[in-house]
From TrEMBL:
Signal peptide: 1-21
Protein name in UniProt: Copper chaperone PCu(A)C
Keywords per UniProt: Signal
Domain of life: Bacteria
């Protein structure tokens, strides 16, 4: 392999590595890999997920989320009580010093995008603004990813929606 080919390969690998790892930082907060599942046409809402790690010595709080593609955007928590999935809106999420909040499908916190103006299609990137009590506003891109192979009891859909 020539030196030029090696340089091209190294450059391509470097670009590939950053294409999937999209992290954001505001003050002492690290926001990791915001993503959402694709929706089907006519589906009125979708879920978005990300992680928030507080690397500082003081607590902070996620107090609002907004996206231009949804009429409203809410922070929800989901839990299983027996065989019943309970979902409720929470006004905010406290993030203690050194704590990491990981939003994932199936249980815990997630962001509901309600009243979508368009279906979420795999490969799309949607803008979202996170507002923290102390750190302020952070603009992120939410990647729409088809993660049907998730592990951990996730049923792969929106079964928690009311029919």
């Amino acid at each position: 392999m020539s030196y030029r080919h090696l340089l091209t390969l190294v450059a391509a690998l470097a670009l590939t590595g950053t294409a999937y790892a999209h992290d954001y930082k505001v003050a002492e907060l690290q926001v990791g890999h915001p993503w959402a599942r694709p929706t089907v046409p006519g589906q009125p809402s979708g879920g978005a997920y990300l992680s928030i790690e507080n690397k500082g010595k003081a607590g902070d709080k996620l107090i609002a989320v907004a996206s231009p593609i949804a009429k409203s955007t809410e922070i929800h928590t989901m839990s299983m009580e027996g065989n019943v999935m309970k979902m409720r809106e929470v006004g905010s999420i406290d993030i203690k010093p050194t704590e990491k909040i990981a939003m994932q499908p199936g249980n815990g916190y997630h962001i509901m995008l309600i009243g979508l103006s368009q279906p979420l299609k795999a490969g799309d990137k949607i803008p979202m603004t996170l507002t923290f009590e102390k750190a302020g506003k952070l603009e992120v891109s939410v990647y729409v990813e088809d993660k049907t192979a998730d592990k951990g009891g996730d049923k792969g859909g929106m079964e928690h929606m009311h029919h």
